[in-house]
Amino acid sequence: MANKPVKRLADYKAPAFLISALDLTFELHDTQTRVTAVSTLTKNGTDPLLRLDGEQLELVSVELDGKAVTPRFEEGQLVIEVAKDSATLKIVTQIDPTANTALEGLYRSGGAFCTQCEAEGFRRITYFLDRPDVLAVYTTKVIADKAQYPQLLSNGNLVESGELEGGRHFATWHDPHPKPCYLFALVAGDFDLLEDSFTTASGRDVLLQIFVDKGRRVQARHAMEALKFSMKWDEDTYGLEYDLDRFMIVAVDFFNMGAMENKGLNIFNAKYVLADDDTATDQDFDNIAAIIAHEYFHNWTGNRVTCRDWFQLSLKEGLTVFRDQQFSSDWAGSSATRIKEAQVIRTLQFAEDAGPMSHPIRPLEVAEMNNFYTVTVYNKGAEVIRMLNGLLGKAGFRAGMDLYFKRHDGQAVTCDDFVDAMADANDVDLSRFKGWYRQSGTPVLTVREIWENGHYGLKLSQLTPPTSDQAEKGPLPLPFAIELLGHGKDVLQLQDAEQTFALGQFDEKPILAPLCGFSAPVKLVFEQSDDELAALMEKASDGFVRVDAAERLLQRLVAAWLQGQEHPALELWLRSLHGIATRPLTDAFLDAELFKVPSVNAMQGWFEQIDLDGLVAARQRLRSQVRERLFAVLHDRYQMVKDVKEKGARALTNSLLTLLAEPLEQGVFDRYQQARNMTERQGALAAAVAGDLANSDALLADFAERFEDNPQVMDKWLMLQGQRSGALKRMGKVMEHSAFNWNNPNRTRALIGTFIATNPECHTEAGYQWLSEVLPKLDAINPQATARMVGPLLQWRRFDQKRRQGLEALLKGLQTPHTSADLGELLGKALK
Ligand code: ARG
Ligand code: ZN
Fold first, then answer.
1. Which of 28, 337, 348, 818 has the highest count of CB atoms within 10 angstroms of its CB?
2. Which domain of life is it from (predicted)?
3. Ligand 2 geometric centre to CA of 301 (Å)
């Protein structure tokens, strides 16, 4: 295996050299691109040895202050001795962007050149100090064939452009803001362009440009609206203005992640830019707005103030996810927004904590940095910021942000610097709160009620079980938001391992709605009565509490079923659903969540050991119980909302249709055929697939025919192919379809990633056999994309004995001399 050495946070050392300016020249050719990099160096200490990172590069020449030098290589780094305190270093390298299927560094995507440098991709462009605490001013000259690549883009402002011999042309860009190399970007291609403008609060006119594939300009309109709204929102909410004359977004189809916040030139996965009613769902529209906002917000939280080292990734990502969540609740927010955020934590992040990749939001050890762009760093990181925001209040949090920028604008800093700014601006002590950055794992919060002589109170205790990376845990300060039904709300601040809270005198024991709004990323243990849970499910004022109460009822029920027993929770759950379906409709988004049967993945989180067959059967049984017992009332509600032209109604319709797919077979078919937009069409198709209806083949075929020219839509088709029952035996055929492409991570993630993450057929002998062939092939093409898919397999110890053996053999078989560093790190941890 290509092992990378493990790096530790504790070993951080300031760089031996600083680079104040970097002049880059790219002579773009499809397979032989030449990069000339001229750095202005100064010593940052006494060490005369400059050690530059580089990977997959062909070195052409090195000159120091105009004189050729012969460098040596040590542990993959280029080592140059620099005698003077400052010097000019010129390095010429050659790279092959067409052969770059890993999509890191400079590569070609669908006929255009583009870059991805975060985290450590710049070292695939030239030898450099590829670390975020080296900040330089960049000037970039891009040279390419004019007919093939009429648009030449890089960071900052355009300073010069012109014609060259042989049908070539050039453009020179200058970015006045010093930046780390992970924020460098270059794009060359032939795009359609959507333009607009924005005037900042202080009167600066900013040109806004979105570059998309030919013929798809109108599909960028929604992204443009989201961008303008984001710019305004950041001014209004945090007083943060944009700082260049233009802001560019390029949408590309080949991209490993969601998007990238390169200074002034964001590069996006096309699925987070392109949308119209016929091809994108309501959820797609919301995701686009959230990601556009996220990348734009990075201009301050990430770019103007960046990370000292990659262990601090949550400094920019946790904070920026929190900011995009705040934005989303203003832009398109519904009661389901927060419920979905909580679901990401409770299914994906809790699973990460329970497996071999457990790490604190500020990891202590990393081999391949790309493996740490995780739900822990991003989403749990955002939950930590959310708690801080709650603790300090809106004004206090804003004061902390203001101080953070005042102190650190233009610097590369740490998570501690951020929390210190928050503490100092508010004159509070946050030293215990910093535990959230150090400690991994999911705190289990146990709630006990005290009810004596009319006095009601709570005894709260917390305990974080040991994780694979960390045995010792301590208590963390956490906010426990509650509602006493009919008596109002409160937030209890739990500081210690155990604390008692008196909540007053009551005539009757009140009903407690716990963890309102998912106030802390914890697991709740609370032996509340089934009747109280049913009451919460129907009546709590907090949406998260209502959905959570339903889940807690179902958890009891499914636990009993797994033991071959019955449980009264079934009747209570059905009765509550009946009540919800027959009362006047007040919140369709929320009802859409309540009328979903939890996924097998969500159910896996309820138990330490995964009885996969039992969970699949339980889920089927829940679905059939709802159909049989509630068909009439659910169908009435379906009839009531199905033609309403409104987002919430569409969400509710889709949930109901999914529940009723089997008895409504013809209705599903009609809904699909008569769909007025993609939300309706995809909802009907997904319902057909979920119910494994006889007509699902015909509908999938129709869908493929209608949308064969739109790769983003075909990814929906590939996802359904990955999810459906009988997926495995159809894989060969699906992979031969023109919609599939081994080299494109959107395609492979849609089909193979979805299969691994959601399809129980993955966990069969045939499934493991198939993966043992597919994963090495994928890993050879794109290590990062492959590593991002295997998470569920790493949980192998939680499965039954037969699957444990099968998965262990699969994972061991993946460890070969050809395995990438990305996949190798995960396998090493999982098999330890
Ligand atoms: N900073 C980007 C974002 O959060 C993520 C890019 C990470 N890319 C990677 N290859 N690790 O928006
Ligand atoms: Zn980000």
1. 28
2. Bacteria
3. 9
- For the chain, percent of residues with pLDDT exceeding 90: 99
pLDDT (0 to 100) of residue 333: 81
Q: How many Å lie between the centroid of ligand 1 and the Cα of residue 180?
A: 14
- The rounded distance, in Å, linking the Cα atoms of 288 and 273 is 6
Residue type (1 letter), 601: N
pLDDT at 327 over 70: yes
The 10s digit of each residue's pLDDT in 107-148 is: 999 999 999 999 999 999 999 999 999 999 999 999 999 999
Answer whether 119 contacts ligand 1 (Cβ < 6 A).
yes
Task: Record the tokens describing residue 92, joined without a space.
Answer: 């010429």
Closest CA to 440 of 410, 406, 412, 476: 476
- Which candidate, 812, 800, 733, places its Cα nearest to that of 771? 812
- Compute, in angstroms, the gap from residue 354 CA to the centroid of ligand 2: 24
Residue 832 has pLDDT above 70, yes or no: yes
Atom of ligand 1 nearest to the CA of 373: 11
Q: Which amino acid is at 457?
A: G
Residue 156, φ and ψ in degrees, nearest 5: 95, -140
Q: Is the CB of 26 under 6 A from ligand 1?
A: no
Q: What are phi and psi of 105, to 5 degrees?
A: 85, -145
Amino acid at 762: C
Q: Which residues in 632-662 are b (16+ Cβ under 10 Å) and which e?
A: eebbebbeebbeeeebbbbbbbbbbbbbbbe
CA distance 16 to 310: 18
- Give residues with Cβ within 8 angstroms of 29, minimum separation 6: none
Q: Where are the alpha helices (DSSP H) in 239-379?
A: 282-297, 313-331, 335-343, 350-354, 375
Tens digit of each residue's pLDDT (9 = 90 or more) over 70-91: 999 999 999 999 999 999 999 9
User: In this structure, what are the phi and psi dihedrals at residue 80, rounded to the nearest 5 degrees?
Assistant: -130, 135
- The letter for the amino acid at 740 is F
Nearest CA to ligand 1 atom 8: 118
Q: Is the CB of 373 under 6 A from ligand 1?
A: yes
324 lines ligand 1 (CB under 6 A): no
Q: Within 10 Å of residue 257's Cβ, how many Cβ atoms?
A: 17
Helices (H) and strands (E) in the chain, counts: 27, 31
What is the four-CA torsion angle of 290, 293, 299, 302, rounded to 10 degrees?
-20
CA 261–ligand 2 middle distance (angstroms)? 7
Confidence (pLDDT) at 331: 87
Which residue shows structure tokens 């604390």?
A: 499
The ipTM value here is 0.98
DSSP per position, 15-30: -SEEEEEEEEEEE--S
Over residues 15-33, the pLDDT tens digits come to 999 999 999 999 999 999 9
Ligand 2 (single-atom ion) residues, CB below 5 Å: 317, 320
Rounded Cα distance between 221 and 269, Å, is: 16
Beta bridge partners of 211: 193, 250
Provide the 10 A C-beta neighbour count for residue 199. Answer: 10
Note the pLDDT tens digit of each residue in 58-68. Answer: 999 999 999 99
Spatial contact of 559 and 606, defined as CB atoms under 8 Å apart = yes
Q: Nearest C-alpha to atom 2 of ligand 1 is from which residue? A: 260
* Percent of the residues in the chain that have a pLDDT greater than 70, as a whole number: 100
Radius of gyration of the chain, Cα coordinates, nearest whole angstrom: 27
Please check the confidence at residue 676 and state whether its pLDDT lies above 90: yes
- pLDDT beyond 70 at 2: no
